[in-house]
Amino acid sequence: MAPPLTTCFVIQLTGLLPAFQVGDFGLSRIKRNTLVSGGVRGTLPWMAPELLNGSSSRVSEKVDVFSFGIALWELLTGEEPYANMHCGAIIGGIVSNTLRPQLPKRCDPQWKRLMEECWSPDPAARPSFTEITNRLRDMSLALQKKRHTPAASR
User: What GO terms in the biological process aspect are recorded for it (predicted)?
Assistant: First the structure.
């Protein structure tokens, strides 16, 4: 059996509801905490603090989960994270755990909690992609039920 892969993610917006797919673009590495050699690799706003502060040079599912949390925020807001900030400020804020994207007040509490868990400074506290998938599915089902409930019974 082939070893599991660290994943890339695709969020496909089709129809009324987003379709979340976790997949591989051929850029992933074997999921056994692969070493990232040759310096830091990634795109700053989406990089987990442990990669930026040097406490880990290993690619793991939890590193990808951090990035996925940032992508969820992008879906919610339609904005680029930290768009007007200098690279040094972004690195410093992420590493010191004082910088995360600002959540709009209209944010659903379950969506907010999921994003914040994905952004946890402790990689062990971040959910797995299996858990994320299950939670997104549950949120989608709850939304579908809410949309199909007559207004008088809400």
Answer: signal transduction
Q: Are 31 and 61 in contact (CB under 8 A)?
A: yes
**DSSP 8-state class, residue 126:** S
Just give the CATH number of 31-126. Answer: 1.10.510.10
Sketch the domain layout of the chain as residue ranges: 31-126
For 129-134, the CB contacts below 8 A with 24+ separation are 129/7, 129/22, 129/61, 129/64, 129/65, 129/68, 132/65, 132/68, 133/20, 133/22
Residue 54 and residue 39: Cα distance in Å, rounded?
A: 10
Q: Are 29 and 6 in contact (CB under 8 A)?
A: yes
Q: How long, in residues, is the chain?
A: 154
| pLDDT tens string 78-123 | 898 998 998 889 989 998 989 999 998 988 999 999 999 999 999 9
Q: Which of 117, 40, 45 is nearest to 74 (CA)?
A: 45
